[in-house]
Automatic annotation (TrEMBL):
Entries under InterPro entries matching the protein: Beta-barrel_TonB, Beta-barrel_TonB_sf, CarboxyPept-like_regulatory, Plug_dom, Plug_dom_sf, TonB-dep_OMP_SusC/RagA, TonB-dep_OMP_SusC/RagA_CS, TonB-dep_rcpt-like
Domain TonB-dependent receptor-like beta-barrel: 384-970
UniProt-recorded name of the protein: SusC/RagA family TonB-linked outer membrane protein
Matching PANTHER family: HEMOGLOBIN AND HEMOGLOBIN-HAPTOGLOBIN-BINDING PROTEIN 1-RELATED, TONB-DEPENDENT OUTER MEMBRANE RECEPTOR
Keywords for the protein's UniProt record, in alphabetical order: Cell outer membrane, Membrane, Receptor, Signal, TonB box, Transmembrane, Transmembrane beta strand, Transport
């Protein structure tokens, strides 16, 4: 009896134990210990679910021990956790490149595993680490196939983005789409961005005529549903300094070298006693400032309820220049409001509005007579100030010319101001008509106004070209606007469970219009910047002192896309876009842009099996046609926007003449893009690899200023030759990217990424009558040094090839005559190569002596986390790009870089650097002597951070507090002698916006990108 009674009691307690339920309170953290709001928490095999609130907390009721809960969140691996008590803490594993991640592809999205095009994504986590002042900087070295070059290191200076090389001599920058509308990447606050998606191949054909240069899709941050108000404050401050100084000659070295030069030229030496000169003035130290401040603050408030999400943010960036301080300063303020509302189960409203204001001051740069050009060429023997404390003049002797002036005086007398205000955004409405079918509409807009003012002070630099005989002020105002309206429907369905179909059909209306006005007034009162305003000037000019313009462009488009997959293994999409643009004449208004992409997930095949080594393998391919219409408006019409001056009744009169010669046959520039790629992952998804081979053939290049008959008079002010479809360029290359992520323990994790892109650029056709197009400038009065020519890279350098230094007269006598180049050589002069072998050195011997297009670009990035510490290093390398050294004035008395100390001084002393002399030589003609290998490796960013333990910060109501220190542009490894091997600046095109690659890579004394030391904090409430 007793055993039976005991058994019944045990069964009763056991039953009670198994049936006991309790509430579970949990907290979800990311890898760094920061709470994660909005995480989906679901009880496995049950309908019970919830999401974490602002503090990353959740609560589930009526659970028992052993219950499995499933946690999922975009960007992190889905995790299953067994309940063991009433309190639980879960740390999510980072999986930012999960195959289930949703990727934006334009007018829709796809899971990453289903994407069949060459698409790369940069997330907000990388932006948080890099802390770029401008977003474009974050793309350098992080995405294969994307190269970012700076036009200048000055604050606020534009950066040029090239996707898979340069294929046109017009506008080469990709189109930026911000939340569905065309926008400006450089004006955004980096902390407002959620993701940046780059479409590199035919996947971009859905955008038709604006997709040839690639598409950058920007998704901004939104609030999350069912989350408390979240406040995020990010701040950093730091100081800047030049990343490089050039080793110019000090006063003693300069005087000794100048004496030798004059002596070799048979002239009296200028310095009879050099013993007291010492080092003299280091003009770069005078020009470059140290400890130049940079400050950035931004605040974001976000959250949401069941039906509403919101995000409000503002930012402030203030950056002075390392040259000129606030005279090359930049200040940017932004404000943003993003709102999402579920009006009903069928209607969803989304809006995003951004306001940007910035001011920027600039100095003379990137050309003959720039501030840095003068700092390099003024002799160290001269003092910056006179004995009375005034800025000194540089003598106007023959040996120093009329272009070199005191750079401190140049900075002092530079006065300009530019301010820009822009409001842009979109309003979107989604209507779910029935299951699987959604109708979406969106209105995007941009409206901007800018004002500029430049004051030319009446001043004399002692007979220099910079002398101003009459003070003046030039003021300008520009008003630019555009809007777009998108209406498209998306239908998604499954047929027989295994066939998935998504169809998209829509239309886009785009209009762009604006106007500008510039005027000049003379005789500024008191010759002061404070009175520099046209309303105060009373001077009269005999020449035209004002210009204005107005423009109006429209585009009407229809597009469609069909996506199909079978069991997620066989993937296919086809798209077509029809564009009609007012930029082209009636016969070529309409263009059609089709494309096709396909993919095969090989790892899903039965024959592939389930190996542990290879987890995912996908083959994909694409081919399509895209367009480019980025040329000035009305190129097909004759417009009276030129100037004409004529004499009537004995008086000089200003009139109007035809501007650009019209070309009624203008049509789209066409890009035919082919890509085949392979994506695979192995070692339990720890290593992922993406490889692509591509061919981008750009046909019917829109080339401006194609020469025509001189009878038309294209040389008159405001006039120009027409724009023609007159060229073909091909870029072929290979991209490879590999990423490794490993979590070694709960305390330590690491990720390593490497990417490389190889590109071969070749011009296939130039139909302009001569077979080539020239551009760029070198020295003074020399022929253009760059060309676009069949069989050569775009913008290659065209000059004489050198073959060392003549060591003696016998070598000169045995060599073809070089007299046609300017002078007979003497021992110590440069020996040029007789390329065509005709026994004479002349213009027929010019050849390809280098090009600015890199053969390969690559990035290597490392991120490590140990407990609360995090450390990152981002690097970038460019290999095979050449640059022309054009920052040295060839005048006899100008200063030199110290490599000239290794000059030829006698037979056998040097075979690379010629002698110095004031006598006539041909040593300064454009040749390979001035072309250098500008390959480089740059440590772009190094950062060390520490996140305080949540156990400490949450007591103060803070969910995250991170402190960090970092250095941007830490060091550049290169053999190039100039300031910045990564800079590039080509001649401006007629659109006054883009730069031509024909003439890029010529260094006039680039303003170097500063090295920046930062201290910052991230704090979330």
């Amino acid at each position: 009896m007793k055993p039976k009674l005991l058994l019944m009691v045990l069964l009763l307690f056991t039953s009670f134990a198994f049936s006991q339920t309790f509430d579970v309170n949990g907290t979800v953290l990311d890898a760094s210990g920061m709470s994660l709001p909005g995480v989906n928490v679901k009880v496995k095999s049950s309908s019970q679910s919830t999401t974490t609130d602002f503090d990353g907390s959740f609560k589930l009721s009526g659970l028992s021990k052993g219950t499995i809960i499933v946690l999922s969140y975009i960007g992190f691996r889905t995790q299953e956790v067994s309940v063991s008590g009433s309190k639980i803490t879960v740390k999510m594993s980072d999986d930012a490149k999960s195959l289930e991640e949703v990727v934006v592809i334009g007018y829709g999205s796809q899971k990453k595993r289903e994407v069949t095009g060459a698409v790369s994504v940069l997330d907000s986590k990388t932006l948080d680490v890099l802390k770029p002042a401008r977003i474009e900087q974050a793309l350098q070295g992080t995405i294969a196939g994307v190269n970012v070059t700076t036009q200048s290191g000055a604050p606020g200076a534009p950066l040029d983005i090239r996707i898979r090389g340069v294929a046109t001599n017009g506008e080469s920058r990709p189109t930026v789409i911000i939340d569905g509308y065309v926008g400006d990447l450089g004006l955004l606050n980096p902390n407002d961005i959620e993701t940046i998606t780059v479409l590199k191949d035919a996947q971009a054909a859905i955008y038709g005529t604006i997709g040839a240069n690639g598409i950058i899709l920007v998704t901004t941050k939104m609030g999350k549903k069912n989350s408390k108000t979240r406040i995020s404050f990010n701040s950093y401050s730091g100081f800047q300094e030049t990343s490089r100084k050039l080793p110019t000659l000090n006063a003693t070295e300069y005087a000794l070298l100048l004496n030798e030069s004059y002596s070799n030229g048979g002239q009296p030496i200028p310095y009879t006693n050099v013993s007291g000169l010492g080092k003299g003035t280091d003009w770069q130290d005078q020009v470059f400032k140290k400890g130049v401040p940079i400050i950035n603050n931004d605040l974001t408030i976000s959250g949401g309820s069941e039906k509403i999400t919101y995000s409000v943010s503002g930012s402030h960036l203030d950056q002075e220049g390392i040259v000129g301080g606030d005279k090359s300063g930049y200040l940017r303020n932004t404000a943003r409001l993003a709102l999402g509302v579920d009006l009903s189960d069928k209607f969803k409203l989304k809006t995003n509005v951004i306001y940007t204001y910035f001011t920027r001051n600039t100095l003379n740069e990137n050309g003959l007579g720039s501030v840095l050009f003068n700092a390099l060429n003024v002799p160290a023997t001269l003092s910056p100030y006179t004995s009375t404390g005034e800025l000194a003049l540089v003598p106007s002797t023959t040996g120093l010319g009329t272009e070199i002036i005191n750079p401190l005086a140049q900075i002092e007398n530079t006065y300009n101001d530019y301010n820009y205000k822009k409001l842009n955004g979109n309003f979107g409405l989604d209507y779910k008509i029935f299951k699987g079918f959604t109708l979406s509409s969106s209105i995007g807009f941009n409206t901007s106004n800018s004002e500029s003012k430049t004051f030319a002070k009446k001043i004399s630099y002692g007979g220099k070209v910079f002398d101003v005989q009459r003070s003046s002020v030039t003021q300008g105002s520009v008003n630019d606007n555009n809007y777009s309206f998108d209406l498209f429907g998306t239908y998604t369905t499954k047929v027989l469970e295994n066939h998935s179909i998504t169809g998209t059909l829509g239309t886009t209306i785009f209009k762009q219009w604006g106007n500008g006005l510039t005027a000049t007034g003379f005789d500024v009162p008191n010759n002061l910047w404070e009175f520099a305003d046209i309303s105060l000037t009373k001077g009269i000019s005999e020449t035209l002192t004002n210009t204005s313009y107005v423009y109006d462009q429209r585009r009407l488009s229809y597009f469609g896309r069909l996506q199909y997959d079978y069991k997620g293994k066989y993937l296919f999409s086809a798209m077509i876009r029809r564009d009609a643009s007012t930029k082209f004449g009636p016969t070529n208004t309409i263009g059609y842009f089709p494309s096709f992409t396909g993919g095969w997930v090989i790892s899903d095949e039965d024959f592939f099996g389930q190996p542990k080594f290879l987890n995912f393998l996908k083959l994909r391919a694409s081919y399509g046609t895209l367009g480019n219409d980025q040329i000035p408006n009305f190129g097909y019409l004759g417009i009276l926007n030129g100037e004409a001056t004529y004499v009537f009744d004995g008086t000089l009169n200003n009139g109007t003449a035809m501007g650009q010669t019209p070309n009624p046959d203008l049509k789209w520039e066409e890009a035919r893009k082919f890509d085949v790629g392979l994506d695979f992952r192995f070692l339990n998804d720890k290593i992922s690899v993406v490889a692509d081979y591509f061919i981008d053939t750009r046909k019917d290049l829109l080339i401006p200023n194609i020469p025509v008959s001189g009878i038309i008079g294209t040389g008159a002010p405001g006039a120009s030759s027409p724009t023609l479809n007159a060229g073909t360029v091909r870029n072929a290359g290979f991209e490879f990217a590999i990423d490794y992520k490993e979590k070694f323990s709960d305390a330590f994790s690491m990720s390593v990424g490497y990417n490389v892109t190889f590109i071969k650029n070749e011009v296939l056709e130039v139909n302009n009558g001569t077979g080539f197009i020239e551009g760029g400038a070198f020295g003074v009065g020399q022929p253009a040094p760059s060309r676009m020519e069949v069989g050569k890279p775009m913008g290659y350098f065209y000059g004489y090839k050198t073959d060392g230094i003549f060591q003696n007269q016998a070598e000169i006598d045995a060599h073809p005559s070089q007299l046609a180049l300017g002078a007979n050589p003497a021992p110590g002069d440069i020996r040029y190569v007789d390329v065509n072998g005709d026994g004479v050195l002349d213009a027929k011997d010019k050849t390809n002596i280098g090009d600015p297009v890199p053969e390969a670009t690559m990035g290597f990035n490392l991120q490590m986390n140990y407990k609360n510490l995090d450390f990152v290093v981002f690097t970038f390398a460019s290999v095979g790009n050449d640059m022309v050294r054009n920052y040295e004035r060839t005048l006899s008395d100008a200063n030199r870089l110290n490599y000239v100390l290794d000059r030829w001084t006698g037979e056998g002393t040097s075979n690379s650097t010629p002698r110095v002399t004031t006598s006539a030589t041909s040593n300064n003609v454009f040749s390979s002597y001035f072309v250098e290998d500008a390959s480089y490796l740059r440590i772009q960013n190094v950062q060390l951070g520490y996140t305080l333990s949540p156990d400490v910060t949450q007591k103060a109501g803070i969910t995250k507090l991170r402190l960090y220190a970092g250095v941007n542009n830490l060091y550049t490894f290169t053999k190039y002698k100039g300031f910045d091997p990564g800079a590039s600046f080509g001649p401006g095109n007629r659109d006054n916006v883009s730069q031509s690659p024909i003439g890029a890579g010529i260094d006039y004394g680039f303003y170097p990108v500063p090295r920046t030391y930062l201290l910052g904090l991230n704090i979330n409430f």
